[in-house]
């Protein structure tokens, strides 16, 4: 598993770690039962604080993505499809909320937001949102 963090990403490093591990789990790159690098090893590899990696692993455990086995390490948990969907919906709601806040500040009307979303979906090869 390869994790890349950046101080310039505009996102806390622990969040970057969480997001990359979640993505790997949800995409199937990290299968259930896979042992993650130890907190200390990951901190050493990324040249960051152990506190930062501890926060990322703790948050992943709270969200049900990993489990910590005392003295053995952190292991990937199997993902229930309903749980995966719920996490995705929560993330999407958060990002859409941020987009709505930015649109309100810029006084962009809802019709233009709909057009932007339709355009983004079409560009990604998705289907029309009105289907």
UniProtKB/TrEMBL annotation:
Annotated keywords: DNA-binding, Transcription, Transcription regulation
Residues covered by the HTH gntR-type domain: 11-79
One GO MF term attached to the UniProt entry: DNA binding
SUPFAM superfamilies reported for this sequence: Winged helix' DNA-binding domain
InterPro entries: Tscrpt_reg_HTH_GntR, WH-like_DNA-bd_sf, WH_DNA-bd_sf
Listed name of the protein: HTH gntR-type domain-containing protein
Protein species of origin: Schleiferilactobacillus shenzhenensis LY-73
